[in-house]
Amino acid sequence: xxxxxxxxxxxxxxxxxxxxxxxxxxxxxxxxxxxxxxxxxxxxxxxxxxxxxxxxxxxxxxxxxxxxxxxxxxxxxxxxxxxxxxxxxxxxxxxxxxxxxxxxxxxxxxxxxxxxxxxxxxxxxxxxxxxxxxxxxxxxxxxxxxxxxxxxxxxxxxxxxxxxxxxxxxxxxxxxxxxxxxxxxxxxxxxxxxxxxxxxxxxxxxxxxxxxxxxxxxxxxxxxxxxxxxxxxxxxxxxxxxxxxxxxxxxxxxxxxxxxxxxxxxxxxxxxxxxxxxxxxxxxxxxxxxxxxxxxxxxxxxxxxxxxxxxxxxxxxxxxxxxxxxxxxxxx
Amino acid sequence: xxxxxxxxxxxxxxxxxxxxxxxxxxxxxxxxxxxxxxxxxxxxxxxxxxxxxxxxxxxxxxxxxxxxxxxxxxxxxxxxxxxxxxxxxxxxxxxxxxxxxxxxxxxxxxxxxxxxxxxxxxxxxxxxxxxxxxxxxxxxxxxxxxxxxxxxxxxxxxxxxxxxxxxxxxxxxxxxxxxxxxxxxxxxxxxxxxxxxxxxxxxxxxxxxxxxxxxxxxxxxxxxxxxxxxxxxxxxxxxxxxxxxxxxxxxxxxxxxxxxxxxxxxxxxxxxxxxxxxxxxxxxxxxxxxxxxxxxxxxxxxxxxxxxxxxxxxxxxxxxxxxxxxxxxxxxxxxxxxxxxxxxxxxxxxxxxxxxxxxxxxxxxxxxxxxxxxxxxxxxxxxxxxxxxxxxxxxxxxxxxxxxxxxxxxxxxxxxxxxxxxxxxxxxxxxxxxxxxxxxxxxxxxxxxxxxxxxxxxxxxxxxxxxxxxxxxxxxxxxxxxxxxxxxxxxxxxxxxxxxxxxxxxxxxxxxxxxxxxxxxxxxxxxxxxxxxxxxxxxxxxxxxxxxxxxxxxxxxxxxxxxxxxxxxxxxxxxxxxxxxxxxxxxxxxxxxxxxxxxxxxxxxxxxxxxxxxxxxxxxxxxxxxxxxxxxxxxxxxxxxxxxxxxxxxxxxxxxxxxxxxxxxxxxxxxxxxxxxxxxxxxxxxxxxxxxxxxxxxxxxxxxxxxxxxxxxxxxxxxxxxxxxxxxxxxxxxxxxxxxxxxxxxxxxxxxxxxxxxxxxxxxxxxxxxxxxxxxxxxxxxx
Lengths: 332, 783
Prior knowledge:
The complex is a heterodimer of chains A (332) and B (783).
Chain A: E1 9-11, H1 16-25, E2 30-32, H2 38-43, E3 51-54, E4 64-67, E5 70-74, H3 79-84, H4 86-91, H5 93-100, H6 105-110, H7 113-118, H8 130-135, H9 164-170, E6 174-179, E7 182-187, E8 207-214, E9 222-229, E10 240-248, E11 254-261, E12 268-269, H10 282-296, H11 307-331
Parallel strand pairs in A: 1-3, 2-3
Antiparallel strand pairs in A: 4-5, 5-8, 6-7, 6-8, 9-10, 10-11, 11-12
Helix pairs in contact in A: 10-11
Chain B: E1 3-5, H1 25-29, E2 45-51, E3 57-63, H2 65-69, E4 73-78, E5 102-103, E6 109-115, H3 118-127, E7 129-134, H4 141-145, E8 160-168, H5 171-177, E9 180-188, E10 200-206, E11 211-216, H6 221-231, E12 239-242, H7 258-270, E13 273-277, H8 280-286, E14 292-301, E15 307-317, H9 325-334, E16 345-352, H10 368-385, H11 389-396, E17 402-403, E18 409-410, H12 415-425, H13 428-431, E19 439-449, E20 464-470, E21 476-480, H14 489-501, E22 508-512, H15 529-556, E23 563-566, E24 569-572, E25 575-581, H16 582-593, E26 596-602, E27 624-635, E28 642-652, H17 659-678, E29 684-685, E30 688-689, E31 707-713, H18 735-747, E32 753-754, H19 758-782
Parallel strand pairs in B: 1-31, 2-13, 9-32, 11-12, 15-16, 21-22, 28-31
Antiparallel strand pairs in B: 2-6, 3-5, 3-7, 4-6, 8-16, 9-14, 10-11, 10-13, 14-15, 17-18, 19-27, 20-21, 20-26, 23-24, 24-25, 27-28, 29-30
Helix pairs in contact in B: 10-18, 14-15, 15-16, 17-18
């Protein structure tokens, strides 16, 4: 059996407003939608809150809408719905691929996009039983004062391991957040901090209610792809996950956006990526890209796989995806 | 569907040999089967275990008074409640159910609580005050064997559980006959069975009558029974052990496990019923898996490919207690024999204690890592000598009947047919040279025993007993104490009885695994059940048939020799018009004495029980299964991820009593070998299991599961039931070497570490690139 589930009180708001109010009244309360991340952590004693606010009954969160401004996906839409949606597969392939790569079919049927964006950071010293962590003197992320991964460091190095964030980043996604003062919209990258124990920039009474994707423009199409490095073709979290998008301009220049997950405490957009010109030579361009990634990722000993391997494969997968998209978009 | 290569075309059976679904399959696939954890617990307390937070130390203080005082707590037990050791090998029992004085690994049980619910039990564990004076801990065999290392067990100098030194044949002459001698070192990670069902046990103690009933997940209820009597100081006649449906074993439950004793101690202390369901982490800590093993192997080969001599040193990191350790280290050497005919073999084995969960028996017990090293090296030597790897194996196969250098009995061997089958099925000859870059083919052979001919707990009794009852309803009830752990042994017994008695399998009802009802059985391990229990079932059926035939002869006024029985009908040869139905014959047979009880037994003859040298009983068996397989891989050049594209496996199981179950066993073996080869391993952080869930203990998923093409080879063993031998383990140990050989074929890298995780393979690739660069630079400088 699993570790016993600690007792909790469950409330079930019907609207976003009620949910915000509930959070406002119980700042330590935790939102639950699919529960695939939260329940496992609760059983392991990693969640101190005794109050769960179940947002799965809020109809608005389940809506998905293609409008002229783009695509709005409610935070409660499941990963299965996303990877099965033909338009997402066609217009935002990286997002469909990222959804499809999460855990197993059972998880995807329950897990939501909002939950995936807020998924707790992971570390082999953190995602263990209470007995294990207690025997190890706990850690910086929970009840302890040392990071076992980087004992001389001052911050938690747990890795952000959600698959969807990088795919959404390279598509220029905004996040819609509801709070006591109404809603606000931020670029998705601004949702995260590079700190494993404080990785989300959300106030205790704020809720992600939707993601907004820019409309697909057939005249200037963005092609994209996502791939995760993992030891098994299912279940595993990404050792490194890379999303790449590519937009061709009229002049033939290609603008690439590359985002990475699994290697750092936050998903991030790769900085200083220069546009690709056919005249530069693809191999040289990709070699530079590889160096750029290896420099900017920061994998730590948060998994049993070698950190260096995660660095190398993040670069290799980015090269592979970039090559594929550049060749595709030039031939198309 | 599998293909079959028949041994003797004349072997005809009415029932045995035809594929049938498992008799207990419907309950399993419909979710109706009750496993131990599913048993009724309405009136049961919940048991939880307090585990040591440190790897090695002396218990200086253990105070359970606050836990006992907590409302809802009904019992707390500690090492003080049991001063008897337990274990599976009578000369190597050095473990207490709950640690006394000293703890030797992180996670070792120190105390246990029975409370009204799990939350109360957890709370009580937090209230137990435990202080431990820490000692130096060792996590590798090298550290533990250092001259100044602190001893885990005072009576085991050098932290060695067992040393083995066996030499057969003239080694020096052998190596001097060899044209090519290769020495290599292999490191194989520790792995766990990761059976689907986590451990659980339910115990009920009746104080009024001093009786104990334990339901458990065990593969060996008889051993559990013995250890309960020993550790609880009870008369064995007051104990009943029941095994419900078992969700996989693979060796994890082939010895009594501490929770089975702890739950009984708690039930007695609480004078009631206690259910203990272990978490996956606790199940992994209970462990008994395959130890981390280092194999140093030296092989001499002639130019033609004959193996001239073999020298092998094996070091196993066995964990903190003896368990099956001495058997494992003996198996590793003994099974260097029995597959190839080799003139000289020297073996040195070292079973080492370390501050980690105890290892034990696991599918392919003892042989897997050594076979891995051996088959990798044979391939590399063949490559070096320009020889065909299939031909090299054919040239060296044992002949049957024969006896090996270490005096093991070989009565049948279908290895040649296995090799031919996979060579042909895989299209090896046509495809090998034409594979695209990054794709490769590899092959290997393997074998395994059909049961240990000398059981670990030697009493002189028959090795197996099956009893049967025929009553007024014409129903035949068969009683066996063998645990069906998913391998299909219950179905095998039903088929054997139906075949001999010529009755519909539906007429047979099986009662298994309840010490109050079923005859004692040593248990489901070392692939002994089909051979031993199968033969006992045949004998019991023959005894019943004799009674039925006599009754029919009397009624039909004929000689018993003239009675024939086909499809539940008895008749007299030559005058088929005088017939009797099975039901009528049964009533006739019951007329004189009422209910009929018969039994059959099986005993391994002394010549099967191994050589006279120390440890010679280990490896001894009634017959070996043989297997060959070809593995096709592709390797992702960017991530070094190895994909197993397809596997062709052939196994000589003597005779497939139920080909459907045999096929499943071969696929399961191949699949489990694949897990060990590509991704599974335990990882400890200073003795804490980092791999404590199925997320971090990476057994393959359905995505990694390749198409497996199975061929069943039937060599018809002269002593096996209908000619059968084992089928559940032999094909495992061939997979890892076939995979590593395929990787060498695909990208030219010889990996000497298991599992071949992508990060390890990438490291090897990066190292080769670096080396190539240096070589290129040096040659530039020279030129």
